[in-house]
Design brief:
The chain is of the alpha/beta class. It contains 6 helices and 7 strands; from the N terminus they run ααβαβαβαββββα.
Amino acid sequence: MAHLSHIKNRIQTIQKTQKITKAMRLIAMSFYSKLERQRSMLNNYRATTKTLTNILHQGQATIPAIYGAHSKAKPQPLIIVCSSAKGLCGGLNNNIIRFFERSLIATKSVKPSFITIGSKACAYLQDSSHGTIVEKIADYHLNSIDKLATTIVNHILTKKEPYTSVVIYYTHLKNFFIQTPRKEQLLPLVTTNEETGEAITVSPLKESEKYLWEQDPDRLGQALIRQHLYSEIIFALFSNLISENAARFIAMDQSTNNAHKYLETLNLAYNKSRQNIITREIAELSSSFD
């Protein structure tokens, strides 16, 4: 009977866990659907801002603090590392941390400054000796990424000694079932491949291709660079959130299915044990009549 009670307790525990994973799966899908509806608008905004900024960058504006004129000075890189806002999203955080470590080893740069976003990134870099953390944001959500992006942009552009480079690490949603870590350089300005995030070489614009700006290109560039940084950081945080919810749905769905399979095994074991006990009791009862 003790064995039956033990199996029954395990069944009840797994059933409670299964209810939680089912609920979390539904919540993750709800958040994912909400983010997916806004995704195309953000992509259009980002593409327009990037196009205008790149046009100015290709020979029509000169902004030393932006285009790397400080490269001869002591390097002062800034790295923004984004992890998930919450846990229970499979290997999402481990993938971005491993990708970050490999990339950092490959660059062999001086110790950079860090802005960490998400509890996992904060905990990882706080316990490491990679560099100094200048900003630490443990939690964020859809309604806070606008304020968060503005804070980071202000930090970058108002620094007394400008950063020589700004790089962001985040998780890109390739499709619902595949989330890939990505590294993107924000400053100095480079043109990147939308699929891979890697820098590509772009030829300077011809005279016939250049835009005619009403404002001074250099002054306009100062305003556009703020929008460029803002849109890229918003896009990275948004990608991280939608990737997190897709990964959480997959993880919770797998957990729910595994719980269902485990319950079938335990129910079978419980019924077998119960039947054996009944059979033994009947045999003992029958033998007492002989």
